[in-house]
Design goal:
Number of strands: 15
Distance between the termini: 61 Å
Mean pLDDT: 95
Structural class: alpha/beta
Strand order of the largest sheet: 11-10-9-12-13-14-15
Number of helices: 20
Largest sheet: 7 strands, mixed
Shape: elongated
């Protein structure tokens, strides 16, 4: 099938490349000429394991890239809209890119019965707006079908999530649109959930909001464990064995980040407000997550009283492993806070350093490996659980740091291992290793 994808960002690029791997003839369109030139050479502009290999495997066969929407959608049976929907200042979704893409499609489309599919995450009711924008800009004799097909991709495992997805959701209002989308995905062995367009739009937001709620909930339980006793890993394991709860997203840490959860939870709160519904639960989830990003800073200030002049290492900058995405990453507010405290900071991340360097410039030092980052440091913060970080033995910290004091936001190490290697170790919801009565007293009083 001839398919066009508008937008070569994370969602659009992964979608287009994976559909080409399914033997569809795919053209990916983007207005960024530099990005398109890279892609035409087989170079991925984003870090996603396996993506560049798939681009190189399919390019010039079933996959092409262009900046021309007229060229890109010519003869297409399906057009996916996968442009960005960033947050406005009030948390609502900015639909300006969606509107521009819709009008460009309307102006360029020349044949009838093309299915125009929204892959971008959009508020409920957006597809009806898209239909209006298309009708305003298209030729009078051209008909089309609008559908919603939300994505459920996790950065770092997006290709697997495409081919081994739990479900494919399509929101349609015509038999033809359903039939064509069934054909698009017929090679993927997964349940196909067919709904109204509005339900499909809501499924995406509701799914992300629920997962964000699980994360904030377990973090609140972890904070309570620290004050009342108990180990959050034992608690979460006991909870997760209940099939109604499950173990996924019950890992305590310093909160969620990235391009989806923060944006989508805020947008859902705004949608609720627009419908005169006070989404109090989700407002609390957002507030808990914002506070959680500062937990390691609070712990370090309780331990040292003053951080001024301390030499600090931060390991991990991306919001999660296996991605270079720093959007809403906990590292950013933490770095701002540490700089305000007067610390001297060295950071390390296997792939996300460039993005942080664009924000902080020469305010930070940049290391190329773990040892370089922690050598002669007073404090180490672990922010992202990259394999390069968690595979570093605690004996390395004991050997290279001035004094091995670690604040671990991802619970990467066992408490008994920290004790064995003489490391002073603070994690989330598991207490601390090291006799620091002043720290314990301060934390309990906070």
């Amino acid at each position: 099938m001839k398919i066009s994808v508008i937008g070569a960002g994370y969602v659009g690029l992964v979608t287009g490349v994976c559909l080409s791997e399914l033997a569809h003839d795919v053209t990916v369109i983007d207005i960024d000429s530099i990005k398109i030139e890279q892609l035409q050479k087989g170079i991925s502009p984003i870090y996603e394991p396996g993506l560049e290999e798939l681009i190189q495997h399919n390019i010039q066969q079933s996959l092409s890239f262009t900046t021309s929407i007229q060229e890109g959608i010519a003869d297409a049976s399906v057009i996916f809209i996968a442009v960005g929907t960033p947050s406005n200042l009030d948390g609502s979704a900015d639909l300006s890119y969606i509107e521009a893409a819709s009008k460009s499609i309307g102006e360029s489309i020349t044949k009838s019965d093309v299915v125009i599919v929204t892959k971008s995450t959009v508020p409920v009711g957006t597809n009806q707006k898209i239909k209006g924008w298309l009708q305003e800009s298209s030729r009078p004799n051209v008909s089309f079908h609008v559908a919603s097909n939300p994505e459920f991709l996790r950065e770092g495992s997006a290709i697997k999530d495409t081919f081994e997805t739990d479900r494919i959701v399509i929101g349609v209002e015509s038999v033809l649109a359903e039939s064509i989308l069934r054909e698009v995905y017929e090679r993927i062995d997964a349940p196909l959930v067919v709904t109204s367009i509005e339900s499909a739009e809501m499924i995406k937001y509701a799914s992300n909001a629920f997962l964000a709620t699980k994360i904030s909930f377990v973090n609140e339980i972890a904070n309570l464990c620290e004050k009342l006793g108990g180990n959050i890993e034992e608690v979460a394991n006991g909870m997760g064995l209940d099939k109604r709860i499950g173990h996924q997203f019950l890992r305590a840490g310093i909160g969620y980040g990235g391009s989806c959860f923060p944006k989508d939870t805020k947008a859902l709160v705004q949608m609720a407000g627009g419908a005169e519904h006070h989404f109090e639960l989700l407002e609390s989830v957002i507030r808990v997550n914002n506070d959680q990003q500062y937990k390691l800073i609070e712990k370090s200030k309780a331990r040292f009283t003053s951080l001024k002049g301390k030499k600090v290492a931060m390991l991990g900058l991306a919001f999660k492993p296996n991605t270079d995405d720093i959007r809403e990453a906990a590292s950013i507010p933490m770095l701002h806070s540490l700089l305000e405290e007067g610390t001297d900071i060295t950071v390390y991340d296997p792939v996300a350093t460039k993005g942080i360097q664009e924000i902080f410039g020469d305010k930070l030092h940049y290391a190329t490996n773990v040892i370089e980052a922690i050598e002669h440091k007073d404090i180490t913060f672990i922010v992202t659980e990259w394999e390069q970080i968690i595979s570093t033995p605690l004996s390395i910290f004991a050997s290279y740091m001035n004094e091995p004091v670690i604040f671990d936001g991802r619970n990467c190490y066992k408490l008994e291992d920290a004790s064995k290697h003489g490391v002073e170790y603070y994690s989330i919801g598991r207490g601390q290793v090291g006799d620091r009565s002043l720290y314990s007293l301060t934390l309990r009083q906070s």
